[in-house]
């Protein structure tokens, strides 16, 4: 039996994750595509594709920022993503962070840093697919112009592709406005996957969200009897929560709440 390399696509709602997967797998209607402000991907879905003789399983996930206007609360989407990463018995070979250009939204770098810190012990490469660049004169020129902003945010991907995931409107001759850009984009993403996936998949190690402090006291009510030993266990924030506070702009309360959701994953 051939073991597939697992590739996880994640990012904010509306970034084009489902369209990206449809393009990778060369199917226009493989995954449902949401055209409104609400997210349509709740539980992760996976799709198989063979590239250069290797079998890959592409996993779609919930939008990380789908909260106030979406169906999926942000914390729940993060838990779903983290749970998926940990649950894959054969390991993870590549992560693709999907974000929509041409402007960099504040939520993009926050989501990147959040998952990067949660996943910090992992050796899995995190790459970026910038979508929505079909109107650019040259899609590949977008990255050199914006690379500095990413670096300022601490976003240093293992690889990046500047693409479109839409063919655009119909032309009178039956073709589509962005057919050329779409086909170029598909080849770029295929190359990204082939070039950056781990040949030996990585099993993600658990994160220490909480530490337990055991306090021992002794109570003696009768001088002629041995004192009674009393142990009290207190949970305190672990390294994982402290990282969320210091690196991801979360309050202690927000980080602790998220840690409690992730600790049992």
Automatic annotation (TrEMBL):
Top-level division of the source organism's lineage: Eukaryota
GO molecular function, one term: GTP binding
A Pfam family hit: MMR_HSR1
G domain span: 7-128
Protein name, as recorded: G domain-containing protein
Organism the protein comes from: Crucibulum laeve
Lineage: Eukaryota, Fungi, Dikarya, Basidiomycota, Agaricomycotina
């Amino acid at each position: 039996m051939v073991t597939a390399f697992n590739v996880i696509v994640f990012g904010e709602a509306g970034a084009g994750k489902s369209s990206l997967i449809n393009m990778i797998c060369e199917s226009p209607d493989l995954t449902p595509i949401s055209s409104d402000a609400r997210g349509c991907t709740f539980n992760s879905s996976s799709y198989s594709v063979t590239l250069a003789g290797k079998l890959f399983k592409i996993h779609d996930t919930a939008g990380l920022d789908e909260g106030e206007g979406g169906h999926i609360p942000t914390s729940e989407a993060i838990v779903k993503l983290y749970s998926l990463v940990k649950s894959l018995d054969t390991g993870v070979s590549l992560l693709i962070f999907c974000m929509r250009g041409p402007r960099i939204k504040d939520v993009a770098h926050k989501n990147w840093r959040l998952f990067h810190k949660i996943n910090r012990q992992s050796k899995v490469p995190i790459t970026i697919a910038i979508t929505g660049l079909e109107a650019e004169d040259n899609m590949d020129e977008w990255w050199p112009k914006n690379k500095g902003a990413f670096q300022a945010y601490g976003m240093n991907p293992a690889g990046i592709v500047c693409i479109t995931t839409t063919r655009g409107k119909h032309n009178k001759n039956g073709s589509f406005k962005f057919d050329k850009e779409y086909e170029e984009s598909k080849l770029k993403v295929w190359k990204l996957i082939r070039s950056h996936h781990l040949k030996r998949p990585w099993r993600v190690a658990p994160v220490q969200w909480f530490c337990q402090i055991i306090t021992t006291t002794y109570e003696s009510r009768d001088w002629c009897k041995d004192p009674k030993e009393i142990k009290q266990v207190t949970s305190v924030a672990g390294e994982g929560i402290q990282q969320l506070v210091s690196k991801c702009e979360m309050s202690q309360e927000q980080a602790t709440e998220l840690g409690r959701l992730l600790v049992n994953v």
